[in-house]
Specification:
alpha+beta, 7-stranded antiparallel beta sheet, about 30% helix, single chain
Length: about 500
């Protein structure tokens, strides 16, 4: 198995085209991802007029008809859903994605109904809050740091295709983790289930936005946009002031994020999400924001609590002419996860269980909403989004798909995705320009604003004059991919900061 994976990875890399690939004028659909070859595979499937979830499986790190990672479940035969598909993202980018991790997906069906699939990693049944006491390193790179992988369960759910694991694969994975002091068991794998959740929804500047709720961070994106909606669009003409306001909106929304957690363990999380989506909260925040200066951290987060996030993430977007769309992000958290590889499958094991001592070392209070509990799913920055044009009762025209978008990049997933949506909806940018526009990032803690070097120096200076601590950074800390449809014609764009990325339409 490992030899097969390495050979396929070598073949894929041999044909990588190091530039954005855009096929204009496609009417069947579009796909975009971090790898142009994977996008072309999905495009070729769409060209045959097959369902979009079949195209999505072109990106997967294995064919779903394979028996992988779910012991004790019978194999289903549902039309050979993945027959003929190739290993792709999980092979060429196994350092940050693959069946050793998990993620979230927002799915829009042909009738315009939305569903969120939560296949986030979960803590093993033997996990407990103080499991890393005196062993902080164990929370980063060890078998103890790995959560129950959910990717296969999520894909099984989406495709309605049951899968099994030859006992040697499941047993190998558990054996490797336990040798590295892990507590995960075969029963943890058997009992893990993907969760179907309702999508979060808001109206924003005449569009409908849908995203995933906790334990992902879609509500944070919506909170930022609801705050910005309180200001006139024409204020964009004063770029310096608008960027300050956007940074302040991020600070308030990221501050609220610290109260989010797995809703099955943190019921108050739903109340926080409801607040972030409300116009009343957005109006209140606008009243607190000062146009001439930023404010101390305690204004945005009185308790000064903090959560961390990783960098090992990949995002895929797909859309088709029937109105079906997906926005899916997968992750192993840190690059190369827990630095543990299963020698049977060659897959990396995730590093997803957070220990409070990692925050205490930098003098920050950890968020109690994300203390470890058995089977609890950690908070994630993942923020997949689908945008639609609402139905028009006057003309009887139904709701229409507009854009599917999402990002990779740890805690910068939220800010990067928000800025692309903001530019598309408020500023009427082309998809290519929205992705290429310089980005800023302000997650409140640490108390500074990251500005890509592409930002105008005058704008950065104006932020400094308003009291912001500025850090200039190179491009490439986030990667956004999107597909948009206008007048029945699709455009697919991948992250221009990412060398091998590509979007393709059919």
């Amino acid at each position: 198995m490992l030899t097969r994976l390495l050979c396929l990875a070598a073949v894929s890399h041999a044909f990588v085209i190091p530039e954005i690939v855009l096929h204009k004028g496609g009417v069947n659909g579009g796909v975009a991802s971090e790898n142009a070859e994977c996008s072309r595979i999905g495009r070729n499937v769409l060209s045959k007029g097959v369902r979009i979830l079949r195209a999505l499986s072109s990106f997967l790190p294995f064919p779903l008809s394979s028996r992988i990672l779910i012991p004790g479940i019978a194999t289903g035969q549902r039309g050979g859903l993945s027959r003929g598909h190739h290993l792709c993202i999980g092979v060429v980018a196994s350092h940050h994605s693959g069946i050793g991790g998990g993620g979230f997906a927002v799915v829009r069906d042909e009738d315009g109904a939305y569903e969120v699939i939560d296949f986030r990693e979960a803590a093993p049944a033997a996990a407990f809050e103080d499991m890393y006491q005196g062993n902080v390193q164990g929370s980063i790179r060890s078998g103890l740091s790995a959560g129950i992988p959910g990717e296969v369960r999520g894909l099984e759910y989406m495709h309605k295709n049951m899968a099994t694991t030859p006992s040697e694969i499941a047993e190998s994975m558990i054996s490797v983790l336990q040798k590295e002091n892990g507590t995960m068991t075969l029963e943890d794998l058997r009992s893990y289930q993907a969760i179907s959740r309702e999508a979060l929804e808001i109206s924003y500047r005449g569009y409908k936005l849908y995203t995933s709720g906790a334990p992902s961070s879609g509500a944070v994106l919506m909170g930022i946009l609801k705050i910005m909606e309180q200001y006139p669009v024409r204020d964009w003409e004063d770029v310096d002031l608008t960027i300050h306001r956007f940074s302040e909106a991020m600070r308030f929304a990221y501050g609220a994020r610290l109260e989010l957690g797995d809703p099955d363990f943190v019921p108050a999380s739903r109340k926080v999400e409801k607040m972030l989506l409300s116009d009343s909260w957005a109006r209140t925040v606008r009243g607190i924001i000062l146009d001439n200066q930023t404010q101390p951290v305690e204004v945005y987060d009185p308790r000064e609590i903090y959560t961390t996030d990783g960098q090992g993430t990949s995002h895929i977007v797909t859309a088709d002419k029937k109105g079906m769309a997906t926005s899916m992000t997968t992750t192993v958290n840190l690059l190369y996860g827990s630095l543990i590889m299963d020698p049977v499958t060659g897959q990396q094991r995730n590093e997803r269980l957070l220990h409070p001592q990692r925050l205490q070392r930098i003098r920050l209070r950890p968020s109690a909403a994300n203390f470890i509990r058995p089977n609890k799913r950690p908070l994630s920055s993942i923020t997949p989004v689908i945008i639609e044009i609402p139905a028009d009762p006057a003309t009887g025209r139904p709701a229409r798909l507009y854009t599917t978008v999402g990002a990779a990049g740890g805690s910068r997933i939220i800010s990067a995705t928000t800025q692309v949506v903001w530019h598309l909806v408020e500023h009427d940018f082309s998809l290519r320009r929205a992705l290429a526009e310089p980005r800023l990032h302000d997650q409140l803690m640490p108390n500074h604003v990251l500005f890509e070097y592409g930002f105008d120096n005058a704008t950065v200076d104006s932020m400094r004059d308003r009291g912001h601590e500025i850090v200039r950074v190179a491009e490439g800390l986030s990667a956004v991919h999107a597909v948009r449809v206008q007048g029945g014609v699709f455009e697919a764009e991948a992250e221009p900061r990412q060398k091998d990325s590509g979007g393709s339409t059919a």
